[in-house]
Structure formats: structure tokens, C-alpha cells
Amino acid sequence: MARFEAPCTIEELCNSLKNKDNNTYIIAGGTDLIIHFNKKGIFGYNIIDLTKLKELKEINETDEEIIIGSCVTMTEIENNPLINAHVPALIDAVYNLGSQQIRNKATIGGNVANSSQSGDTIPVLFAYDANVEIIDPLGNRRIEKVENVVEGLEKNNLNFDEVITKIIIKKNNAKSAFSKIGSRKAVTISKLNCCVKIKINNNIIEDSVVYLGAVGPKPIRAKSIEEKILNKNINNIVSADIHDAIYMEIENAIPNRTSKHYKKSAAEGLIDDILNKLRR
Amino acid sequence: MEELKYVGKSIIKDDTYDKATGKTKFICDMKRHNMLYAKLVLSEKPHAEIEMDKSEALNIEGIEAVYTYDDIPHVLYNSHEWFAGGNQYKDEYLLCNRARFVGDRIALVVGKSKRVVEEAISKLSIGYKELESVVGIKQAKENKAIIKNDSNVAFSKSINCGDYEEEFKKADYIIKDSGKTQKIHHSAIEPHICLSEIDEHGSLVVWSPCQTAFQIQYHVASVLNIPFNKVRVIKAVMGGSFGGKGQTVLEPICAFAAYTLNRPVMLYMDRKDAILGTRSRNATEISVETAISKEGKILARKIIADIDGGAYHTNSTAVAMAIGKKLFRMYDIQNQYFQGNSYYTNTIPGGACRGYGSPQAHAITEINIDNAAKKIRMDPCEFRLNNLVKEGAKDPTGGTDIGNTKIRQCVINGMEDFDWKNKRQNIKTKDTDRYAYGVGMACAVHGNGYMGAYPDFSNVDMSIFADGSVLVKIGIHDQGCGTVTTMQQIAAESLDINVDKVRVLEVDTLATPYDSAGTQASRVTFVCGGAVKSAGENLRKKVIDSFCKLKGYSEDDVIASNGFVYQKNSDKKYSYGDVAVELETKHSQSMSVFERYESPANPATHAASFAEVKVDKYTGYVEVIDLLAVHDIGKSINPQIVEGQIQGGAHMSLGMALLEEIDIDKNGYVKSTNFSKYHLLNAPQMPEVRVMTIEENEPFGPYGAKSVGELAAVAPAPAVLNAINFALDTNITIYPATPEVVMNAISNKK
Predict the structure, then answer these.
(1) Do A266 and B684 touch (CB under 8 A)?
(2) CATH topology for B31-131+192-268?
(3) Which of B115, B682, B747 sits opposite A184 (nearest CB)?
(4) Which of B199, B492, B688, B745 could form a disulfide with B730 if both were Cys (CB 3.0 to 4.6 A apart)?
């Protein structure tokens, strides 16, 4: 008989995790998991539903950090002033993620745990060097870098009885933006996405972090693009200046894929979009 | 003409309220006592002999049957053939033991719930002995692997007028283009489904959201060897078809299960099944050579269309002919040669898809027309106006007359409304480093039924009851586009009675009289509408005649209006129902007529589309900023429905232009099996479609009406590609023009 558990407290969650077997799945928004069940023809599974845990649905701040519960939905992030103020690229990422119906259900913790190569919040979390808090059946909590949790191609490095409870992003005074290229303008899966995080002083870029997504199992740091924009005036950079760096990064990331030709030129458009956003 | 009371009015469709409030019952909402669910098992290999061990699946509790090739009657049929005299090549079994495409029907699993059915399917042990496969037109032509009979050619025929070779010698220029169009999934929101049961009269009943109920009756009866008169097909409420539910794919095997198990069976599909296991618009590769004079007159044209017919014959013959015939009915070209070749491949079989060959026929030829105009530096609209057919033109191949076409007016009015000349000259001033702008246009032609090619008639049984209500029995299938309302309006107009008094049935083969060809070929408003009009006029005449006979008036003194009949100078008005009662009482007759109506003509219907695009030269995204669709429709029976048809058609055509494609890899495996991989144009990308109609009366159509629903899905696509090519100075002839295709064209130009 299939079992469905929806723990309301951390204690109940730990109890559920203690009994977790290979046929038990953890569900948050379910926007990937249900499709997975249908696609793989999985029947008679057990479910642990995280969405009744209040603690996992909150967005909080401390002096140094923004703390996002793992079951916070994309729509909740999109409408949150705290995130808008501190992590603008995350707003960009969730704003265009799937459809409105998907955004109402999908969660940030799910996006990390699902570890799709096209996941839209992942390059942003990488760029911010974000951490996750993970809980195990004994109630032990540990902190891990998102970059170490995401393996890509729908694999993560969590133990099978662990659950992500929080996403932790350090506050800083950086500007950031995210953009993506799919097959169409909206409700589309990224063929290529990118997050740029910079610090600006008198219009001069003093610090730059660039991650390209969907060009490998997980987002890659594009150092040559970072170097090209460093110490430049944000208002004077045009994407053509960094054309060669963009092409090189894509070439290095996916040398053997035929899609690289398209992704190279599209990446130029993507960076152009992002630079425009960073000037806002 | 007298002022019309009901025709030409935007009366709200009869099903609007129920659909908007969720009251409408689709087949998936139907329940029957003891009903079973069934799902097809579709081949996962493009070409393979099948062995199946079904023991484990049969052991699952609640599974009633697992049928394979061994269990079914071994009678071949052609799922496209809509009447017994169709003489189409028959090559399909209900279930096969040699799968010919990824999606072919190899088994049917029947059980008490969807859940157990799905589980049983996962437990089937299927052995595929793979065979060499043929994917795409190029491979089919090579004939290295032959998958059917002695050649992969399914059908080949040429159509010819004049002497094109002679004219080519005289030409100032010959403009050559070749290109290709993609396989398209219809994307009806309701996946294919049907329900079969045995009713109280002992009929084997099939409920289906179909386009051709009599075709299903024919196939079920002949494949299962049951008398036609014991098979009853009822057209269910339909959640869209666009041609996709035109062929008999699910119904015979569902009927077989219900008949064999003697229990109601609902056979359902999900999106993946609907994409893989039904039908698709035929992919084509088309080359065209057009000979012109330097003054801009088309002297001759040669067109070769190679067509991917898919794994079964289905419509391979019909679609090749449909593509060819249309090419003689838009431009005045006295010397033209067309050759159409359909090929068997190990891919999804072809079927009707909104436009039946027209989208493919125009996709490449309309780009070629622009290139011809460009060659002599002539405006493409002016070039077309030099060559478009005129009112009353004859088909040079001996086809039916073109009729009262207003295609030239479509172009002229469209140019003015779109501000064509100005935009064409000045749009490039909007260009930036990243974005290029362009405008383009295209024309299109479609037909009005089968007259001239196949039997085209309908029968109507129309009655007036004692309360004055009217029942119209005619074998129509409303696909969601308002056919029932259209017929109500025509009946009301011809009878001169309030539209609310008129009920029009959809087809139930036990209740509605025979119709020769179903709801396809853009024939329903023109042919069935003509039939209803004729029946209504005769019934109204019967009301008047009966009234005169009963009361002793002469016809000249009698008026029949708004459902009442009366003597001019009398205050006493009789409802049509009163007359019906008196007719029955005094003369033993019912107030009804039975009308057999044969289509009197098959004129052309034309349209022109104008598009403005913004092309992102970095990403290859194309945004359609403005789209104007101008249609010569003779007369709108219901302007709001017409506008909706044109806008919906434009949506499909823009999808063909930019995004939609059933993506089949070189080995025959389908990659786009859901809507995250099969891309439809969605709301944020959809421009407002501006609609203009020209209503100048087609003499053979009911109240002057011609077809619109299919034609609406034709011209926008080439108009958009012409606009892209104008923006970028490229010559893209590949559909869909995805970002990758656009970027390729840009980089090839450099």
C-alpha cells in the first residue's frame, strides 16, 4: 500500500526520513517529480510531502544573510522585496521560469535538488556562492555549498535520507542579473542561461562573477568573460567587445556538441540582455 | 437581396455557456456501468517484428484483456478512406505484429482502471526484432531499404497544362527555389479518445470526437465483420481536431474490445500517444521553378513536391493531389507542370491537418513568388496583382470553376490597411545593430468541398413540431468552430423563424441521415450549409402551401415571417406549429422535408496575409509584431465565428512558420513527445491578428458564403518567412524558421 506522509514539524519530518526506503520520494512542488513518475512508469510509490512544514516556507534575513526556506515557491520569491533588494538576479530567474502555474507550485529547494542542467535558479545560486542547510533523520543540520550539492543531469549529492531545508545567501552590495534563451520567449526550458554578478563603483566594474548554464551538467564559471568586463565602465561595454571570450567559453564547455554554433551567437545576445539589465 | 435576420449576425455559439462554466461533458467525463479503460501499447521501435509476453501483465488484478495481433480479425483497412467506394490502398491492421513506426499500434490493454492499465503496460515484455528502417524523403527515394511492396513510392502523379518547357525557353528569368516543410502535430487540447458499448437495441455503439462518423461506421463494420446497420457511431463533444481526429485510429480496436468483452470500454490517450500514435501533417520537400517576363508576368512554372507519407498509405494519394490542384487555382499560369510523389517511411503516417496540402503548397511557392518579384525589382504585391486569377476564371486543368474570387481585392485592401508601400520602403530605418525589421506578405487558395473529385452531397431531415420548434437532422460534426450555430442561423434564415426555435443535431448514424464525406475538406458551411438552406426553403414553402390549402388562400396573399404565417389583411396569425398540427389532423402529413443536396460547385476561396517581424540577429528569435489577414469569404454567416477562425488559423500558421515540428531523429525516434519539446506559439509571443473580410457573394454558396477555417492556416506562414527574408536579405525556405535556422542563414550570408 502506498504511504503518504506530510510532516508538520521537524520532528515528524525526521521520523518520516527514518523510515524512508528506496521507493519513497520527497515531494515539494512536484513539478518535476510527477513528470518523472509518468515518464518512467513508476507506480505504488511512497511520498513525503514537505509543503506542510511552516519553517520551510519562510523567507528571513539576518544582518549578514538572506534565508529562503526550501519550499518557498518561485511566485513567492518573485514577489519578495527582500530578495528583490539583495538578489535581483534570482527575481529574473524565477520570473521567466516555466509558466505561472509552474511558478505557483515549483520551489527553490526542488530546483536545487532536482539538479537539472537547465535549472534556472542554479547559476544564480552559484554566482552568489550560496549555501544550503540540510537535515538528516537524526535532526542533524549541516551547511553545504549549493555548488557541491548540484551534480547536474538530475543528480544531486544529498544522501537519500537527507532533505534541504534552507537556501542561505550572503548579503552584499552587488548588482546582478540573469537571462535565458529557450525555444520561445516565455514558458520555455533554457537552452542557455547566464547569471552575472558585479560590484560597481562610479560605473566601473570592480568585481565580476559570470556563470553560464545549460552548457554542461551544471553551470560553469566563465572566467574569461569575467576578466573582459572587469575594470570596464558598465555603460561603455558592448557585447561585441566580449564576443571572443563568449565564443571561447562555449567552445570549451561543449566542444563536441553541434548546438555550440548556435549557443555561441545566442550567448552574445544573452550577455547583451544582461548588460542592459545591469544598467537599470 | 432582402435584409437578412439571422445570417451575418454574431450570435453567440450554442455551447459557449456550458464550456465556459465547465458543464460540458467530454468523453473523458463519461461513465458507464461496468466500464473498462483501455490504452494502446505503441511501438518503441521504428521498424521491427514484435513478440510479446503478456503473462505478467495479465496477472495484474483488474486487467481484463491484453490484445495483440494474434487476437484481432486479420482484415486490412485504410484509416483515411471515408466511404466504401474510396478505392484506397488498404494496409493497416487494428494491431500489428510488425511495427512500422515509433507509435504503431502493437497491443491493447484493457482493465478496470487507468491505474491498472498503465501498470500492466509497464509489465509487458515486448521483444523487438529490429528491421532496417527508412526515415525521411531522401532515404525513401534511395530505395536502399524498401519497406513496402517493391518500392517506397506510395503514389506519383503529374498534373499539367500548356507547354511549360516551351515557355521556359522564352523566359527573361527563371527563378528557382527549393525548401521543406515539417511534420506537424495538431495539438488539440483534448487527446484522442473514444468509448464503445452495446446499447439497448443491440447496436455496437462508438462515441467519438470525430470528423467522419460514417467513415468509422464503415471501418468498424468491415473490419469486425458486423453489418453496417448494427454499428452506431455518435459524434461526441470534441476538444479540438484540426484534422487530427479525421482518421479512424482508435475506434475499431475500441469497438473490438467492447464487442468481445461485452462491456463498455473507454480507450484513452495521453499527449505522448496523441503525438506518436495518431497522424501528422505530411512533411514535404518542394522545388519550384518559375519563368517570368521582365515585365512581371508569370509565363510558366514547374513544381515537384516530394511528400513523406509515413508508414501507412493513409492519405498519400489524396494529399499529393490536393497540393497539386491548388497550384493551378491562384495565379493565372497557362503553362504549368506539377509532379507529386508520396513516399513510405518508418515515421508517423500522414493525415489531414488544417488546410490539407495548402500549407505545404504555398510554403515554398509563395517565397518563390517574392524572389521572382525581387529579381525584376518589382514590389511583391504588384507582382502578384499582375498574375492573380480574376473573377470567373476557369481552372486550366479542367477543375471546377474558380468562382467569384476577390483575391485581387484582398491584396489591394490589405496593402492599404497595412500601409504596405510605406512600410516596405521605410521599415529598415528601424534597424539596430541587434534587431532587423521586415514586412512580407503571401496569398493562399483553398477549396469548398469535394465536388469535382469525390461524391459530395448531404441529406437533411427537417421537421417542425406542434409547438413550433424545429429539428434539423444532418450529419455534421462541430469541431468547436461553431458549426452547429452556423447551421442554426442558416436554418432560421431560410425558414424565417427565430434561431432559438431551431435545434441542430450533430451526427449520430442512427439518427441523422447519411452524409457523403464528413466534416472535412472545408465543405461544411458550403455544402451542408447549402443543404440546410435548401431544406429550410422547401419546408417554409410547405408551411405556406399547407396554410393556403387549409385556409383557401392564394400564395400571393400569404406572409410567413418570424415563425408565423398569416393572410396579409388578417390579424389572425398562426404559428408554424399550428399549421403543422392542422396539416396532420386534416391531411395526415407531417410538417417535414427530407432534402438530398448535391454540391453545385466547388469554387476557390482566397486570402492574403501581411506580416511585420522583428528579428534578433544575436539569438535568431523572430517576433511577429503585426499580422493582417484579409479573407475573401463571400459572406460571413457569423462574423464573430469567422474572426475567431481566422485568428486561430493564424496561430497555427505562425507556429508552422517559427516553432512547431515533430522532431524525428535520423533513426526514426521521436524526440518531441510532449509540449515542453513540441513548441507551440504561446500567448506572450502571439501578435494581435487583425482580420478583414471581403464579402461579395459567392453565387453557389449559402447566402453567398465560402470556406474559411482551413484557409486561415495557410498564408501567414509564408508571409512571415517573406518578412524575415526581407529583414535579413536571406532566402530561408525551411519550416520552421527556428532561431537556429535563422542564425544559420545569417552566418551563411557573411
Answers:
(1) no
(2) Aldehyde Oxidoreductase; domain 3 (3.90.1170)
(3) B682
(4) B745
